[in-house]
Amino acid sequence: MSQPKPVNNDKSPYLELAERNNLIIDFRPFIKVEGIPAKEFRQDRIDILDHSAVIFTSRTAIDHYFRIAEELRLTIPDSMKYFCISESIALYLQKYIVYRKRKIFYGLNIFKDLVEQVISKHASEFFLVPLSDIHKAEIPRILDKNKIRYTKAVLYRTVSSDLSDLSDVNYDILVFYSPSGIKSLFENFPDFEQKETKIACFGPHTARAVKKAGLRLDIEAPSVVAPSMTMALEKFIKDFNKNGSPK
């Protein structure tokens, strides 16, 4: 699994999958997040305090927004408004602010709905949008479409992890969750040959990256019969064990 090991092992669907099917699963992040240093951020000439509101699409964005503010020795005013893509991300703000004393708004985990149903009602605000160097193109596109005044601030970047210690390890299945994971695979192992190794991926963007890299995509989720990666893996394994090949 090209992602971190689940924090709550007792409730992890992956560990339940392993127990049911007698599998050995290694969790190894193929990518990691690095914060943009304050010195580099200054070169973008973005003044955080020029903005009256912030849009958060992830917990990582929250972490790096407050990190960069601290590095720049900025005091975020109590009047700052926070707009989060979901309630769980909004609640994560409690790590940095007194939640009940701030103006916090959130959506139902769909960015388009957040903008059209919540942010558009506050169109007079000047928004800061903390993002990674690799982010969904729909974010600025939807904001532009709705004529929202904003600044896109790249506060962290996604880079490949060092996987050199895996050079002598052969897996039956490699599971990817983002195009960056595919990029990391070839940055670490430029001569990688798939051969009998099965490739599993989650999401259409990752699927396109797998095929673009010339790899064979054996397991794909979500689908009608397998909305989650664990369901897709279990179906593949059962079909393979029963018939010698998946259906």
Highlighted features:
247 residues, Rossmann fold, 9 strands, 3-stranded parallel sheet, 6-stranded mixed sheet, 2 domains, alpha/beta
Mean pLDDT over all positions: 93
* Basic shape: elongated
What is the CATH T-level topology of the largest domain? Answer: Rossmann fold
Instruction: Report the major sheet.
Output: 6 strands, mixed
Task: Describe the structure in your own words.
With 247 residues, this protein is α/β, with parallel strands linked by helices. It contains nine helices and nine strands. The protein folds into two domains: 9-30 and 170-243, Rossmann fold; 39-158, Rossmann fold, CATH 3.40.50. Helices cover 34% and strands 19% of the residues. The chain has a six-stranded mixed beta sheet with strand order 1-6-5-2-3-4. A three-stranded parallel beta sheet has the order 7-8-9, with helices on both faces. Helix 7 (179-188) runs parallel beside helix 8 (204-212). The longest helix is centred in the C-terminal third of the chain and has 15 residues, at 229-243.
Condensed summary:
With 247 residues, this protein is α/β, with parallel strands linked by helices. The chain has helices at residues 13-21, 38-42, 59-71, 87-92, 111-118, 138-145, 179-188, 204-212, 229-243; strands spanning 31-35, 53-56, 81-84, 103-106, 127-132, 150-160, 173-176, 198-202, 219-221.
